[in-house]
Design brief:
- The chain contains 18 helices and 19 strands.
- Strands 12, 13, 14, 15, 16, 17, 18 and 19 form an 8-stranded antiparallel sheet that branches. Strands 5-6-10-8-9 form a 5-stranded antiparallel sheet.
- The radius of gyration is 23 Å and the shape is globular.
- The protein starts with a helix and ends in a 19-residue tail after the last helix.
């Protein structure tokens, strides 16, 4: 099989040396490692198709890999099949072409291996933006972002990845290519199949290309870092901003003081605009395409009034691009800081915005009682209700645990149950991966779960596409 793959992919397209394969087998936080026969690096969709056909004939599982920035181990190759079926990792890192910019239609068509930050840069000459922004944009690939239905800070205005994809190209488990890249706003010809693959985490096929929605470039922006007295105040402020300038809200992020402290300890070039770290910080971005809109005046009006009534404790409005960059450098550094801070158990729950304060209060109360050694750190995309509730355990404490897997399970179940009690979800933007398969089965509506398994078996009857992701206990297989 290796020889057959080499004929398809060439020297640059196949890795078999164990040392060279290592970065493709382990998650970026070094918490979990898998194994595989080889790593395939196809250069185009035809090579992906031919590689998939070989894997199908050899009955080897396939593990798609994007930028490897996920938090749920969905990119770690772990075959549930016998030793002679360890599988193939397929990375699309060589597929980096911008296939077409269509400014009139506001659509860009790209290879799945395009890096998010590169797409941002290449959109600028067209005075357009692809409005997905997150901390890992320097390594995250479009295919992985689609497969996990990524979110980020701009969801409040533009929606998650699902709302930004208007066409898709996928190689199925048997090597056939499903191409739907027209990107039409109106196309009422039956099922919209692209939505099956957005958020499917590589379990139904490999996304090799996409038509993405562009938006006009924001030529006017304003940024503020606001100290508030509570999450309840943060929600009231968000409501007031929606009432007075809703279309201009680009990002509305709530961050706990414990999280800011971790960033200050571990990340360089951090600038704090306040004398002390606030217990609760709001980081807000307003944007417009109309340069005549005075966004700073909106900040001054709303924040000034709330400063007078005591809800806003302090506020810093950026006066230039450098100050704005410093605000968001803090926000986008939290993942790297948490990696260094300790053993962080990250939760990706979502509840309605109105229920965020109650969820936070209940989670802090229950976890303080059950897990007193952990410090809660919190990052909340307040505009869409997505709460990253992180319990940070000291390394020394964690390393002495006799059964860390059980503690992880207990913590996850505790936080997820609290989210469920508020009508929320345990996975908002990180996906399920291999980490949360039990939680999907436990908390998902039984009929929905049954229908998803039916779709999986229909498109991947041998369970070769990223087996063990989403569904751990499928009986069929290679």
């Amino acid at each position: 099989m290796i020889d057959r793959l080499h004929q398809i992919l060439g020297d640059k397209g196949l890795i078999t040396d164990p040392q060279d394969m290592h970065p493709y087998l382990i998650d970026w936080r070094d918490r979990r490692k898998g194994k595989a026969l080889c790593v395939a690096l196809p250069a185009n969709v035809e090579e992906v198709s031919r590689t998939m056909k070989v894997a199908a004939e050899e009955r080897q599982p396939v593990f798609p890999l994007g930028g490897n920035t996920g938090l749920c181990y969905g990119g770690v190759p772990e075959s549930p099949f016998p030793e002679d079926k360890p599988g193939i990792v397929i990375s699309l890192q060589r597929m980096k072409q911008i296939r077409e910019f269509d400014a009139a239609a506001n659509i860009v068509t790209v290879d799945a291996g395009v890096i998010l930050a590169d797409l941002h840069e290449k959109s600028k000459p067209y005075k357009r933006q692809f409005p997905l922004y997150l901390g890992s944009e320097g390594s995250a690939q479009i295919g992985g972002l689609i497969s996990t239905n990524a979110g980020g800070t701009g969801v409040v205005k533009y929606g998650p990845m699902r709302d930004l994809v208007c066409g898709i190209e996928v190689v199925l488990a048997d090597g056939r290519i499903l191409s739907d890249l027209e990107g039409l706003k109106k196309n009422n010809t039956g099922y919209d199949l692209k939505h099956l693959f957005i958020g499917a985490e590589g379990t139904l096929g490999i996304v090799t290309g996409a038509a993405l929605r562009l938006h006009p470039e924001n030529t006017n922006d304003a940024h503020a870092w606001v100290s508030v007295d509570s999450p309840e105040t943060a929600v009231r402020l968000f409501t007031e901003f929606q009432d007075k300038c809703g279309p201009y809200i680009e990002a509305f992020e709530l961050v706990s003081g414990t999280e800011i402290d971790a960033v200050l300890r571990h990340i360089e070039r951090i600038t704090m605009p306040f004398d002390t770290v606030p217990d609760w910080s709001l980081m807000i971005e307003l944007t417009a395409t109309d340069i005549s809109v005075d966004l700073n005046s909106i900040f001054e009006e709303i924040l000034g009034a709330n400063f007078e009534n005591g809800s806003v404790l302090d506020a810093f409005i950026a006066s230039n691009a450098q100050q704005a960059k410093q605000i968001w450098h803090v926000r986008h550094s939290v993942t790297e800081a948490n990696k260094l801070e300790g053993m962080g158990l990250v939760h990706d729950v979502a509840v309605r915005v109105s229920k965020v304060p109650a969820f936070i209060a209940k989670a802090k109360e229950v976890t303080a009682e059950k897990f007193p050694m952990a410090t809660p750190l919190l990052v909340n995309h307040l505009g869409d209700g997505n709460v990253h509730y992180i319990l940070m355990f000291p390394h020394d404490y964690w390393n002495q645990l006799s059964d860390p897997d059980q503690v992880t399970h207990d913590v996850q179940s505790c936080v997820h149950d609290i989210a469920a009690s508020f009508g929320g979800t345990f996975s908002a933007e990180h996906g399920v991966g291999r980490k949360l398969t039990d939680e999907l089965e436990r908390l998902c509506d039984p009929l929905r779960y049954e229908l998803m398994i039916g779709i999986k078996k229909s498109l991947d009857p041998e369970n070769r596409m990223n087996p063990g992701v989403l569904f751990r206990n499928l009986t069929t297989g290679c």
